[in-house]
Write a structure and sequence with these properties.
The protein has 586 residues and is of the alpha/beta class. It has 15 helices and 20 strands. The protein has helices at 3-33, 36-50, 55-64, 129-152, 160-196, 212-224, 242-259, 263-271, 316-334, 359-372, 410-423, 439-449, 490-498, 516-524, 537-556, and strands at 71-81, 87-97, 100-109, 120-121, 235-236, 283-292, 301-309, 344-346, 352-354, 381-386, 393-394, 399-403, 406-408, 427-431, 454-458, 477-483, 503-506, 528-532, 564-569, 581-585.
């Protein structure tokens, strides 16, 4: 080899060595600037003293503490079916976790609560609930795909407040667009009617009647008849609004999963920054009987007969067990020859549905079944009656159709409730005994029943749009039932509960197998939890979740005692008299 060739070869090797040397320096500086050598040294030192069986698992857990906070990478949605066979929305939340995209959690939510049909505006063309559900699900999936998914990309799922604000602002914009569209349609309709209608012609004054007696009689009737307060205008439903509720819930479940916490503990920590060790369990309200408008008998008034314990020592498992025994005993009594009742069925909410002629038959059935099981009403169990009176108003008569062919004015209904409470002192609460508009009768009933019974308003029976100010509760109402509507974020639900002194959280219809309502009840600190009857896999999953949480809290020693004031008991059981005693659930 010539001297020139030797220099050329040596120069080429030197250049490659120099590039490799520079690359090593860059790598060393990169690792040094990110603290990698020190982290590795600390990990190896700690691992040497602990000597774990799974070395690489230990290292993976150690370095995961220094990884970036997971953020939402994408949100996907698809159509599924709920327990009624109606369309629902399932949301999957994907996050970037340690440089990899993973599906963390999902949530399922059905459409609007069926019980709202009496207070919800429909379009001129009457559409079935399944058609409405289909339209709402289709719109919700479009919103998620085109708007909500991109909007939440890169958001920390643990920041529930910011996530819910983005969702609420988006829903507000859609609501205002829908409102403007409705107003334009109404203006066009009024213009069309104005052009098509001929101008009104003057009518000659009617001749005075000679029947003075009849005239006086009419005046007397008008003076004594009380005008019926008009119903509140219905609240328009917004198609696709369920996208907001299901995304908010899915993000909350994702955050809980990333934190390694149950959902109820995550919600509680978000709601209360000063996390207390004790956690209080809500009192379960079990629907055991339904004799409402959909039942085969004449009775319409008792939409739900609800069971709840009056003993503070009763565990949730014991209460649920008593409810199951009571339902079986009621069926046995109904199958007896002496019982004259209509067909027996099971509602979709898991309650026993029986057709009766009057409310006394239904309450006598519960009383007899409890007596057979040696569970006297008043000492072990109490009853709440959901009247759902807003569904019973016959506006053509201005009266409530409490039984088929039997109409009661609001004042007559006050007397009827007073008689039932006096005859069945185990009734501790009446839910929606009147429409919200019958303010005078709410006040009158509250003064009549005194402390022997409390009045509860179901906020879901006449929903107030969260886009306007909340309407005042009727006088005499001491507790409120709140439902997690499909268009409510977790923050909306927390605010609704915080605004009331004593709340009950209720699971709506449209079962999907998602037990999150139980965790929400614990995390948000409600006093009572209404889950429906004791039939159906979806319902029982929620009761099982409730029992599992109670067992978990007992094992950890953080099950707190809550004091809940119940109405006074004037009579422990039929035929037995006692002085009034106060009941406190703790």
């Amino acid at each position: 080899m010539s001297y020139k060739g030797f220099l050329s070869c040596h120069s080429r090797e030197s250049k490659e060595d120099q590039e490799f040397y520079d690359l090593k320096n860059k790598a060393a500086e990169y690792y040094r600037s990110n603290g990698v050598p020190q982290r590795i040294e600390d990990a190896l030192n700690e691992m040497f003293f602990q000597k774990p069986d799974d070395i690489y698992g230990y290292l993976a857990n150690y370095f995961s503490r220094f990884s970036y906070t997971p953020v939402i990478s994408r949100i996907t949605g698809r159509e599924v079916f709920d327990g009624r066979g109606l369309p629902a929305v399932q949301i999957d939340v994907h996050c970037i976790i340690r440089n990899e995209e993973k599906m963390v959690c999902s949530a399922v939510m059905g459409g609007p609560y069926d019980g709202l049909t009496g207070g919800v505006a429909e379009s001129e063309e009457t559409i079935s609930n399944s058609d409405w559900q289909k339209l709402s699900v289709t719109t919700a999936l479009k919103w998620i795909r085109e708007h909500l998914g991109p909007m939440l990309q890169g958001i920390n799922p643990k920041d529930q407040t910011n996530t819910d604000k983005l969702l609420s602002d988006f829903l507000m914009a859609r609501y205002l667009e829908d409102k403007d569209s409705r107003n334009r349609e109404e203006e066009e309709k009024n213009k069309t009617e104005t052009v098509s209608d001929p101008p009104p012609q003057a009518t000659p004054p009617s001749a005075p009647t000679k029947d003075k007696k009849g005239s006086d009689k009419g005046k007397k009737g008008n003076s004594t008849e009380k005008p019926l307060p008009p119903a509140e205008p219905p609240v328009p439903r917004l198609t696709g609004a369920m996208a907001v509720g299901v995304v908010s819930l899915a993000v909350a479940k994702t955050a809980a999963r990333l934190r390694g916490l149950p959902l109820y503990r995550h919600i509680k920590s978000v709601r209360d920054q000063q996390f207390q060790n004790e956690i209080h369990m809500p009192v379960p309200m079990i629907t055991i009987l339904s004799c409402g408008k959909s039942s085969a008998g004449k009775l319409n008034l008792l939409e739900e007969v609800i069971l709840l314990p009056s003993s503070p020592q009763r565990a949730r498992q014991q209460v649920i067990g008593m409810g199951l025994e009571l339902q079986c005993e009621m069926r046995r009594v109904l199958n007896g020859l002496a019982c004259k009742a209509g067909p027996i069925g099971i509602l979709e909410d898991g309650a026993l549905q029986v057709g009766f002629e009057c409310p006394e038959q239904a309450l006598d059935l519960v009383t007899e079944a409890c007596a057979n099981l040696e569970l006297p009403l008043g000492s072990e169990l109490r009853l709440a009656v959901n009247c759902a009176a807003h569904c019973l108003m016959d506006y053509s008569r201005g009266k409530y159709e409490v039984m088929s062919g039997c109409h009661k004015s609001p004042d007559e209904l006050v007397d009827m409730y007073e008689g039932l409470i006096n005859k069945y002192p185990a009734i501790l609460a009446l839910i929606d005994p009147f429409r919200k508009e019958d303010v005078e009768q709410w006040e009158k009933l509250a003064s009549v029943i005194g402390q022997s019974c409390c009045l509860i308003a179901d906020a879901s029976s006449s929903p107030c749009s969260r886009r306007s100010e909340a309407k005042p509760l009727p006088p005499g109402v001491t507790k409120v039932i709140i439902r997690h509507h499909s268009d409510m974020t977790i923050s909306d639900l927390a605010q609704s509960i915080a605004e009331q002194r004593d709340t009950m959280l209720a699971a709506g219809t449209g079962e999907t197998g998602d037990t999150s309502v139980v965790d929400l009840a614990l995390g948000l600190g409600v006093s009572f939890l209404k889950l429906g009857g004791l039939r159906g896999g979806e319902r029982m999953d929620k009761y099982n979740r409730l029992m599992a949480i109670e067992e978990e809290l007992e094992q950890e020693g953080i099950l707190g005692a809550r004091e809940i004031k119940l109405p006074l008991i004037n009579d422990i059981s039929p035929g037995v008299t006692s002085s009034a005693v106060g009941v406190t659930l703790s």
